[in-house]
Amino acid sequence: ICTFANNQYALDEELGEGIFESSFYITLRSGSCRGTCLILREHAEPLKRSWCLFEFIQTMDLMESGVFPNFEGLFFCTSSGVMNFGKANVELSLRIGDQLAEMRLEDAQASQKEDKLLIDTAVEAMMGG
What we know:
The chain has helices spanning 2-5, 11-15, 23-28, 50-65, 90-102, 113-126; strands spanning 36-39, 74-78, 81-82. It is mainly alpha-helical. A 3-stranded mixed beta sheet has the order 1-2-3. 18% of the residues are buried.
């Protein structure tokens, strides 16, 4: 969703005054969004990126809250299909599962140091941390 919610050529403008004013956050929390598609390859690169983890956590929070009944949650999409529907390669699914088990916010990276600090601070506050 980030690719479509954010103008990739004007990210500073898209982010507004803070992380909770980003196009992604606003779109996800609008009530019209039906889910988040996480596109993964064998090394699950998005799970190593701060922004992707922020989006992942926001999606999990929205799923748990049940605030929008039409929200279907997180879809793990691979080149062989959507894992949620049993349409992904078994080996790839296992590798992605391993990456999920090892996922740590503090190890995630961002292109901008300021973004990483902003995301880490927001997630820590959200998670009681």
